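Design job #97: recover the sequence.
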């Protein structure tokens, strides 16, 4: 699942027109990853990501670089998530909307050749399983890491993949 999350993250962020991803820190100290360079007032680092199908880890060294960049992004996003106040309605909305966005982006990436249909199908099954699990009733009755996952989703950053990774919600 971790490899699939990284592949979907890379495929979501990388496009044929922009084979680079920029990493920078915003005014709140949160690490950002964007396909556009950071604002002029911010110092950023360009991460080279090869265009094409980045989800096939056996194709060559470019795919290894994409996988490494994806793992770094996912780890930094998870590390940058700040604890907040539990809001089950917001958490459920953020979680489901985030998954819907990832799946829609995955479908677009299949159409444009940035992802294999078979990889999207695997990811879709996993994400739909998680999406169907996310609920206000689970949130309200949660404890431990599951409660932490919902608290993570309650923040304004809405990083569903980072919250899933950080709190092992899969």
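Job complete. Output follows.
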């Amino acid at each position: 699942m971790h490899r699939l999350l990284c592949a979907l993250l890379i495929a979501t962020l990388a496009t044929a027109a922009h084979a680079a991803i920029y990493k920078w820190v915003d005014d709140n100290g949160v690490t950002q990853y964007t396909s556009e360079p950071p604002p002029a007032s911010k110092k950023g680092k360009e991460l080279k990501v090869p265009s094409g199908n980045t989800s096939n880890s056996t194709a060559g060294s470019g795919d290894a670089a994409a996988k490494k960049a994806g793992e770094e992004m996912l780890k930094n996003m998870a590390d940058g998530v700040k604890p907040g106040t539990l809001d089950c309605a917001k958490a459920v909305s953020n979680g489901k909307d985030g998954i819907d966005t990832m799946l829609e982006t995955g479908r677009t990436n299949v159409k444009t050749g940035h992802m294999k249909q078979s990889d999207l199908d695997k990811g879709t099954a996993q994400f739909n399983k998680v999406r169907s699990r996310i609920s206000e009733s689970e949130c309200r009755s949660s404890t431990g890491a599951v409660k932490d996952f919902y608290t993570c989703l309650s923040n304004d950053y809405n990083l569903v993949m980072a919250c899933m990774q950080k709190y092992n919600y899969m």
